[in-house]
Structure formats: C-alpha cells, structure tokens
Amino acid sequence: MLDIKFIRENRGEVERSLKMRHRSIDIDKLLTMDDERRELQLRFENFQAKKNRVSKEIVGKKDIDSLRKSYDEASKKAILAEMKKMDVEQSEVENKLRALKDKMQEILLAVPNILDSRVPQGASDKDNKEIKKWGNLPKFNFEPKDHITLGKELDIINFEDGVKIAGSRSYILKGDGARLEQALIKYAQDFITKRGYCLLIVPVLINKEILVGAGFFPEGEEQTYYVQQDDKYLVGTSEASICGMHMNDIVDATKLPLKYAAVSSCFRREAGTYGKDTQGLFRVHQFNKVEQLIICKNDKDESERMHAELQKNTEDLLQSLKLPYRIVVNCSGDLAAKTAYMVDVETWMLSREAYGETHSCSILYDYQARRLN
Q1: What is the pTM (predicted TM-score) of this model?
Q2: Cβ of 274: how many Cβ atoms within 10 Å?
Q3: Using one digit for the tens of pLDDT, what is the confidence trace for 278-329?
Q4: Measured on CA atoms in the order 200, 201, 206, 207, is the torsion positive or negative?
Q5: Please, which residues have CB within 8 angstroms of residue 90's CB and are 6 or more apart in sequence?
C-alpha cells in the first residue's frame, strides 16, 4: 500500500505508474476524501479536547457542595446539556470518519505499487524484454517425445485418473515420477538452505486479511480457492504465508535481512486461462514449490541487492541442472499491483519449442510491509 501522504506529495509519479499499468484510479477523489478525513479528524479531536476541559473543571471542584456554590441550577443544566449535545455531535463525526476511512482504505488497497524505473512499457507478456540467455538448446538426430508421451510410456504420469479424481488440469505422479518430483524438491531446498535461508513448512490454509496484506487481494481473488465453511483460502504461493508470519510485528532491524525458504503445495484456479497452455504439467491447479523470500531494510539499494541474490539463486539452480533458460523483465502491463519490478526466468521446453516461465523474482519495496502493518 502507498501512504496517502506519499500519494499527495508524489501525485505525478503515482499517475505515471497508473498510466503505464493501464489502470484507472480517481486520485482527485482520493485526495478530496483525505481532505475531508483530516477535517473530520480535527473536529473530532476538538470535541474531545473541549469535553476534557469541562470534565477537568468539574472534577477539580473539591466536593459537591463547592460545585453547588459555584454554579446555580441553571448553569449546571446548561453545562450538562452542552456536554450531551457534544456527545451526540462527536458521535456523528466519529461515524462519518469511520465510514470515510473505510472507503479510503478500499481505494488505497487498489492503488498499485510505484513502478521501478527499469520496467519497460507494455500491455502484456508479449512486451516483456529479454535481457539474458544461458545454455545451449539441445539438438537430436531424431524427433524427441514430449513429457506427456514419455509419462504415459514410462507409466510415471497418470492424467486420466487425475482428471477422474479432481477434474481438468489434475494429474497423478506414479513410481519414478513421484520420486523424481520429491528428489527435485529435496535438491532445491538443500540448495537454498546451504545459502543461509531458513527452511519452513507453512500452512496452506490462510486468512483473508493476510492475502489482502500481502497484496494478493483484492485483484487476485478470482484465482484463489475459497473454503467457505472455514472462511479461509488455499494459498497460490507460500509467499503469502511467510508474509503472514510477520503481520503486525515490529522486526528488529539488527536481525535483517530475514531469509526464508518455504516448501508447500500451491493451489491456483487458473480462471480465465481456458484453452491456454492446458496440455501436460503446466498451469495445473495444484503443484509443489520451494519459495524464497527476503525481508530487508526499507532501502532501495538494499532491495535491489537482495533481488539480485534471489535471481542468482534461481539461475545457479538451473545451471546446476544444465537447463537452458532466459531472463525477461516483465513489462508494466504484465505486473501485479503489488510488484514494483520483476523478472521471469523461462526454461527451455523442448516439446513446446519455446521457453516457458518456471520462476520469477520480484521487488515490492515497502508495499507489503505497510499493508501488513
């Protein structure tokens, strides 16, 4: 979340980011509401100060007799009537103030993060900018089989029964297929923890306030599975769970940076992607992931250094597996509201004859920290 004071003082920068993101938010309305909020806040505080003064005058009298001597009956009634009137007026102001703050919060939650200066202009992932390639693409003197065919022939992936159990984009890993995924997860978690990251296994059921605080809601709600009976959600990434660990916390700056690696199952509805990348183990509803996340000082240079570390970890992992990949900088129209800067790491997928996103590394600056308090 952007601080309202920041928005007021940096309006041009906020509106530039909105335009680049192809988003529309009425900043005039927001700032007018903030003016009204400040006026109501001042009125509320003035009421409180006046009531406190009168209360101190009354309490300051030594006893009820001295109070009777100091004020005649008419004066007492007038003071009490004035106090009652102030209570009613203050209550009205308080109710207006509360309602206004709620409306402002709704708009503020929708205001996206300020884009980093390195983000290229664009409308979709087609406008992402390639900045690096690594590895030689494999060549064969025969036509290689895709992972769907290999999975069936080796009897290590069962798509049919997965669909029977849970519907489209579901699958079962069998035998060596299951062992292969477990081995990759173990390899990845060992790889990252050797670099000083604290290994976590986190809840995958999560409260809405954390998803709002971490910046996944309100705009990502349609992609998230909701468990109505318990009023909780299934995480699409353990990033949200890690962030929730420190909601409403004051973190000791001497302990920064905090470096975490979380292993979890992830669940995504993939709403709106019908007919897109539906073949095989891509854009599935449930998958397992090792997430890396750093909480560091609120300092732009420090954030960029930590982001470079996350990207290096990712690249080193892929290079250790000898998997060719490329790095693309996400354009303005391909970034979530919470993200200031992001690179996608796309690994070569032989049967697609194209690179496909397998990792991403983001900078959020203080956007999540403000929302999570």
Answers
A1: 0.87
A2: 8
A3: 678 888 999 999 999 999 999 999 999 999 999 999 999 999 999 999 999 9
A4: negative
A5: 44, 47, 48, 51
